[in-house]
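Supplementary Note 3. Input sequence used for the single-chain structure prediction.
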Amino acid sequence: MSTANSASPLKQATPESSPPEKIILGVDPGTQVAGYGIISVAGGNMTMIQYGVVQLSKYTTYQLKLQKLYETILRLIDEYHPDEMAIEDPFFGKNVQAMLKLGRAQGVVMAAALSRNIPIVEYAPRRIKQSVTGNGNATKDQVAHMVGHLLNQQLDPQFFDATDALAIAVCHHFHANALPVVSNKKTKKGAWGAFVSENSNRIL
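The predicted structure, written as discrete structure tokens, is reproduced below.
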């Protein structure tokens, strides 16, 4: 695919013969490198569609990094038409400036999804690791290994941003009943708005 040299797809799977019930885009935002992973779910089975990275370190200003990240995620959405987006929840660290920049990167990724009415769900890093490996303190290498096993794919362990993004998508599949941030898009399984109205007791 063409992404103006800002996104590097590592692998693209052969399209499925039967249409998927759901396509999930997982994103691991970053200010230097951002990862993305796209999976399809059919009959409860997961299949990897593509995973890759968005190289942002070569751009000179932070504003330009955000612009390229937004444009690339939007391009992925328009090309693969995901039903839902899963993203890593902001984490708290000691470096306030780093947290602020990461929060902005997460914001533009979410803005790209919202501009296409894609429902968004956020997951804490520990929950992602727990869902995929059974260990909330798993290393990135362990996460990548288990994601490859679950998707029956030989993944490149050098690109943890991409494998982490796949893990986020897989985590979302395992937590399919999580409520989305936005709920006005009709998916192949029905409207998110209908889900919310029928399960009002689950809204906090």
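Residues 96-115 form the longest helix (20 residues). Confidence is low (pLDDT under 50) at residues 1-5, 183-196.
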